[in-house]
Write a structure and sequence with these properties.
The protein is an alpha/beta fold and about 230 residues long. The chain is built from nine helices and nine strands.
């Protein structure tokens, strides 16, 4: 099977989903170059190996080197869905102490959530999870909220949002219109006890400055109300 990868940003973590054989050759060399570019933009990575059928010494070396590079910039790499054969190789070589393994993406993201809390403490702003189908809107929300002192974690679908909510409990969830899976029972369960702010279509199409000011006001109000409600 030809080696393929896909990249997805989930909050401040990049999830890399791999399929095929991670072996010496031009495809894996391209993968290595892609990792070198990604590390410039992100420090934390989850590599999902659910569809990896074979891993040779060269492929293993790429993962180990990438893990070292991420650690050198105060980040990290975690593996998930590692097959029995690949897990055996990592344990036999004792590289499982270098490349941490988790059962699924949610567990790996959760481990990063715990790391984030201990590493940065109160330096992060109030956490807000944004779910919207438009990547452009998500990029805008990240920057907008950052400029107002919030720490925005973004994703375009309910499944990944649920994983984020398992990893880090935010102060607020901003939910865009028409998100597939938003009515799913598991997603609704993950939202339990967290204030949810609906992002209407007017935010996508309205005058940017007006909509931004309105949204920031709604965020402050929602968080203040939730804080008061939680105070005995």
């Amino acid at each position: 099977m030809r080696f393929q990868t896909s990249f997805q940003e989930i909050g401040d973590v990049t999830v890399i989903r791999c399929s095929g054989r991670i072996v010496a050759g031009p495809e894996v060399e391209s993968f290595q170059l892609a990792l070198a570019e990604r590390i410039k933009l992100c420090k934390r990575f989850v590599i999902n190996m659910n569809e990896v059928s074979f891993l040779d010494s060269s492929g293993l070396g790429i993962l180990v080197r990438f893990c070292g590079t991420a650690k050198s910039v105060h980040g990290g790499v975690k593996l998930c869905n590692v097959g029995a054969m690949q897990a055996r190789v990592l344990k036999l070589t004792k590289l499982d102490k270098v490349l941490e393994m988790y059962a699924c993406e949610a567990d790996a993201l959760s481990a990063f959530g715990q790391l984030t809390k201990s590493e940065v403490g109160t330096r992060d702003g109030i956490r807000v999870v944004c779910v919207d189908g438009s990547l452009n809107v998500l990029a805008y929300l990240r920057e907008l909220l950052s400029q107002h002192g919030y720490s925005a974690m973004t994703t375009a679908n309910a499944y990944d949002a649920r994983n984020i909510l398992k990893a880090v409990r935010p102060a607020l969830v901003i939910l865009g219109p028409g998100i597939p899976g938003a009515d799913n029972e598991n997603f609704q369960s993950a939202l339990k006890g967290i204030p949810v702010l609906a992002l209407g279509t007017e935010f996508h199409t309205g005058e940017a400055a007006v909509e931004a000011e309105n949204l920031i006001g709604r965020i402050k109000t929602a968080i203040e109300q939730a804080s008061k409600a939680a105070t005995p």
